[in-house]
UniProtKB/TrEMBL annotation, chain B:
Residues 377-388 have a biased composition (Polar residues). It holds the Pfam family Peptidase_M19. One of its GO terms (biological process) is proteolysis. It comes from Streptomyces corynorhini. Residues 1-47, 376-410 are annotated as: Disordered. This is Membrane dipeptidase. Signal peptide: none annotated. InterPro entries: Metal_Hydrolase, Pept_M19. Residues 10-24 have a biased composition (Low complexity).
Length: 404, 410
């Protein structure tokens, strides 16, 4: 994509975007590289070296992160939500382990960041501040001590659910269960506040979002969610919740997943899933037979394509509804098979920034979107933790105690 | 840094006719080594003074406190109302006043969870909960405990009069068959893992290929290998693979008491050969003989036997305290304050000061130190192991990793 060069001879939008990102690089809220490394090469980093061009297999490698102007990344230590108990915990620890190995392997490019100060230090050094986020409360196996262990090991946010309900929290993509957060779920939020781990409300049901916002004593994030008013999908954030963010101080990080952000893609995905189910297959199956069924469907019904403008539409709305201090970016690269045009991989962020510049977003607004809001929200979580720790001991509550 | 003063032989010249000598009778003349009254050459002035056994024990413990191999207090914390460890807690057999009275200068805090937790998919979380509680206990009593992550921390805590607190051992079945989980435990401060109980430590009684890799990775990280309760063949396997000395964190002599956690004479001989340490358990079920309740003298017999078979540099102490006060105990060894009585008995049986210094502190501290040194060497040769149990053991019963799901998490 080439940016138009204005007639007055000033820099084109894309060049301005790149210049801006040099100063205020992107903090991306969600990238599934760890899981991709698990699936592709069983964590064998010699077999898939992200210092090289990995575009044949991945959305993410170091050269493309650099071209994309990424200066901070929450690496998702996601594990599948059909995992439970110790299996989920050990898989999460394996994900945390591989992030640690990446940091040890690429010290010139990746810097471990545990605090907002670490993020700023990495930016000054020209390295990519690397943080970790757990994706789904199944990773803590109903155990607050396990939550604290994840924090100690460097995890700085936890999405309360993934695609399935937990005993203590409802997911956006499951049937209503406890109707938001259970008593134990609220205790999880309070304990996250106490230790200084950000509460991530992507993936959760709107009821859970509202419960969590009512209980939390620190700002929350949406690590990868867009606006439901622009595209009505349960993975997106409704306006009434976006409007709660200024009081809470939190940040909603727009995601790029086409089937969440483009209404035509939502509809197309629904019909594709129906088609799979009609053939007796799980809608997420990737067996050769399933892929064949899917290819036939796609040949007959071309897939609608999202673009940079689709994402910018969401950001325009989110800025309107939540305010410019409460928005960010969470692409979900390597967590989704399809990506928008212009945002094909992690090198694409400058295209999005150029689009926003073309829509007259100011430089201060963009620097908040890319860098400042994300750093501020982590610092706020640290401040809340510092205030809470003297007043509250580590919670010993169990799900049996609180939820019966 | 190495703690040079840990070497018990540097300060106390071994008295003649000590090791292996027949225990002298209680009525022996005062000048006989090992009798109730003996001559100690003080380290600094070189002056000679006559002191009683109790005073000898006190002096020895002041310099060489007990590095205890096994305390399960973590299991009780959080289950019962908060305990006052700092000023004394009569409901328990362990608190700071009694640890101090017992001359305990370092403690392995056991993090072993019951085997049934694995069946409930809770072994890892339960272990993380124990780590959480024990860390909270240590942090909550900074005047009493100091966390010990490296050998230097042992000495440092001792010099400050704190109980150096080592996290571990963790149960082998709480590793989830994953070296990443082992590394996570290490990152959380764990410094010992018990192999027993894990499937890979009992593959028809032997250490599986994955089990061998676990031992190598423990050596690489600097995690002490604990062989208490390990089957005979698996134990031999561990000796073959291990590049650092191993511990038995809570084992007595199988020749005297037939208990699954006790070590056979063959095992003790191997241990001596590999310079490991058997931390002799004080638990009644591991030291009882001929169906009568065990006494302090039975424990001393076990210590004599282990010293005899494995050698005086391969024996240590493991109280097995950390229970409620009403738990059955060996008579005379009811709580953590009783070590001086046991050491007095050993002195009367002819153990030399050097032997005692090794028993209480030096031997186990050497294992911790050598483990750390071996890790530093290993880390220059190899990176973290990514081996999996499926890969090495081809175990169908291993964790199911289903395929055919999308890689995404959107």
């Amino acid at each position: 994509m080439t940016a138009p060069v204005p007639a007055d001879g000033s820099l084109g939008f894309l060049d301005r975007a790149r210049a801006l990102l040099t100063e205020f690089p992107v903090v991306d809220g969600h990238n599934d590289l760890p899981w991709a490394l698990r699936e592709h090469v069983r964590y064998d980093l010699d077999r898939l070296d992200i210092a090289d061009d990995t575009s044949a297999q991945l959305h993410t490698d170091l050269p493309r992160l650099r071209r994309g102007g990424v200066g901070g990344q929450f690496w998702s230590v996601y594990v599948r939500s059909d995992m439970a108990g110790d299996d989920a915990v050990s898989a999460t620890l394996e994900q945390i382990d591989v992030v640690g190995r990446l940091l040890a392997r690429y010290p010139d490019d990746l810097a471990r960041a545990l605090t907002a100060d670490d993020m700023e230090a990495a930016r000054r050094q020209g390295r990519i501040a690397s943080l970790m986020g757990a994706e789904g409360g199944h990773s803590i196996n109903n155990s607050l001590a396990t939550l604290r262990a994840l924090y100690t090991l460097g995890v700085r946010y936890m999405t309360l659910t993934h695609n399935d309900n937990l005993r203590w929290a409802d997911s956006a993509t499951d049937e209503p269960g406890v109707g938001g957060l259970s008593a134990f779920g609220r205790e999880v939020v309070r304990e996250m506040n106490r230790v200084g781990m950000l509460v991530d409300l992507s993936h959760v049901a709107a009821t859970t979002m509202r419960d969590a916002l009512a209980v939390t004593e620190a700002p929350v994030i949406f690590s990868h969610s867009s606006a439901r008013a622009v595209c009505d999908h349960p993975r997106n954030v409704p306006d009434d919740v976006l409007e709660l963010l200024p009081a809470n101080g939190g940040v909603a990080m727009v995601t790029f997943v086409p089937k969440f952000i483009l209404p035509e893609a939502v509809e197309w995905t629904r019909r594709a899933d129906e088609n799979m189910n009609a053939h007796g297959l799980h809608h997420l199956a990737t067996t050769p037979e399933a892929m064949k069924v899917h290819e036939t469907f796609e040949a007959a019904h071309p897939r609608p394509v999202a673009t940079v403008a689709t994402v910018a539409d969401h950001l325009d709305h989110m800025r309107e509804a939540a305010g410019v201090d409460h928005i960010g970016i969470g692409g979900d690269f390597d967590g989704t098979p399809f990506t928008p045009e212009g945002l094909e991989d992690v090198a694409g962020y400058p295209n999005l920034i150029a689009e926003l510049l073309a829509r007259n977003w100011s430089t201060p607004d963009i620097s908040k979107l890319t860098w400042q809001n994300a750093v501020r929200v982590l610092r706020a979580a640290e401040d809340a933790s510092r205030a809470l720790k003297p007043t509250r001991a580590p919670s010993q509550a169990t799900i049996e105690d609180l939820d019966g | 840094m190495a703690d040079l003063r840990d070497d018990p032989y540097a300060r106390y010249a071994a008295p003649p006719a000590a090791v292996g000598a027949a225990p002298p009778s209680r009525d022996a003349p005062a000048e006989d080594a090992g009798s109730a009254e003996t001559v100690v050459t003080a380290g600094t002035g070189g002056s000679t003074e006559v002191v009683g056994t109790a005073e000898r024990v006190r002096l020895l413990l002041a310099e060489h406190p007990v590095l205890d191999g096994h305390n399960t207090l973590g299991r009780l914390l959080g289950h019962t109302p908060p305990h006052d460890l700092e000023f004394g807690e009569s409901a328990l057999d362990t608190d700071l006043p009694r640890l101090r009275a017992g001359g305990v200068g370092a403690q392995f805090w056991s993090l072993r969870v019951p085997a049934h937790e694995a069946g409930h998919q809770r072994a890892i979380s339960a272990t993380l909960e124990l780590i959480d509680r024990v860390r909270a206990m240590i942090d909550g009593c900074p005047e009493g405990f100091r966390p010990a992550l490296a050998p230097g921390d042992l000495t440092d805590a001792r010099n400050r009069g704190r109980v150096a607190s080592l996290l571990g051992p963790v149960a082998g079945h709480a590793l989830g068959d994953s070296l990443s989980v082992l590394r996570a435990y290490h990152a959380l401060g764990v410094r010992a893992v018990t192999l027993a109980g894990a499937r890979w430590a009992d593959r028809d009684g032997a250490l599986s290929r994955f089990g061998q890799e676990v031992v190598r990775e423990m050596n690489r990280l600097g995690v002490v290998v604990d062989l208490s309760g390990t089957r005979e063949e698996a134990m031999r396997g561990a000796f073959t693979v291990a590049k650092a000395p191993v511990l038995f964190s809570h084992s007595a002599a199988r020749a005297l008491t037939d208990h699954p956690a006790n070590v056979s004479d063959a095992g003790l001989a191997l241990l001596g050969h590999h310079h490991g340490v058997c931390m002799v358990s004080l638990a009644p079920d591991q030291t009882a003989r001929a169906g009568r309740p065990p006494t302090l003298r039975d424990v001393a017999d076990h210590l004599d036997h282990v010293r005899e078979v494995a050698g005086p540099r391969c024996v240590g102490l493991s109280g097995g305290y950390g229970a409620t006060a009403d738990t059955p105990r060996v008579r005379g060894l009811e709580d953590a304050s009783c070590y001086p009585l046991l050491l007095a008995e050993l002195l009367e049986r002819g153990w030399t000061d050097a032997d005692i210094a090794g028993l209480t502190w030096g031997n186990a501290a050497r294992v911790v130190r050598d483990t750390e040194f071996a890790a530093r060497t290993a880390q220059q040769r190899r990176g973290p192991s990514t081996a999996t149990v499926e890969e090495l053991d081809g175990d169908q019963a291993a964790r199911q990793r289903q395929n055919g799901w999308p890689e995404g998490s959107a």
